[in-house]
Predict the structure.
Amino acid sequence: MKQKQKHAVLSLSGGMDSSTLLLHLLANGYEVTCLSFDYGQKHKVELERATELVKYLNKCREGIEGEFPNQLSLFFNYYPIKHQIIKLDGLSQLLNSSLVEGGSEVPEGHYEDENMKATVVPNRNMIFSSIVQSVALSIATKNNSNCIIALGLHSGDHAVYPDTTEEFRKSCLETFRIGNWESHLVDYYTPYMDTDKFGILEDGEHCCKQLGLDFDEVYKRTNTSYKPIKIASNATNHYIASDPHPTNCQYKWYSDYKSASSVERIEAFIKLGRPDPVEYADETGPVSWEVAKKHVEQVLLIHKN
């Protein structure tokens, strides 16, 4: 008997958590529709990374020989990925958060520190949930089958972001059930709710092996930094984008290593025992993985004491 096709809608931010969940869904046989949101975030590079990752995974699946020489195989057994960026124009001007354009400076430090509440975007996940739910229900009714909503929520977020808790998720689902016909066809899937970024990264490593994907190629196409640094460069020099520089420069985004989101990510890679393939920088320009790693180790030590 032919196995019934499984459908999932994923809120794909372009960060490490949702990107890993995409791998997880592919490895478990889901046809995935990814939704990314442009809500005026400062770290808009995450949308570029989400697009790059989906394009990369789809090309891997097509088995384009020679384009990705480090891949473990040329043919990948998963469904093609659909990806849509939803633009919420005008919203950022009405929001009070350090993460949106026009907001205050994104704080630095440990991800559990009190000042990280400045990075909360009011009701963000409720806004996203409403759109994701409507797409999931449309897929379910069109195909007359179940559809899951996959979210990369994890335990490390709960202390700062109340809209990542199990209580919030259940409330969203209850409201959705009340307001829609055939809503029983849709349910939530949150496999990382009780783990942290390290646990997520471990799953990502496992999924890459299962899917025959190169771990570094996948994760260099993710962004966790809330304070990404845009650097212009030519053949000999690097320039921070805000500094004067020659006109014949090309721009490139780097991750910072001091914001809380970056600290949490780097800690996970340290625990995993492998360098982060994302490139890092600070106010002086690009830095090595060892510089980023050493800074985070110091932050963790201070927080522990």
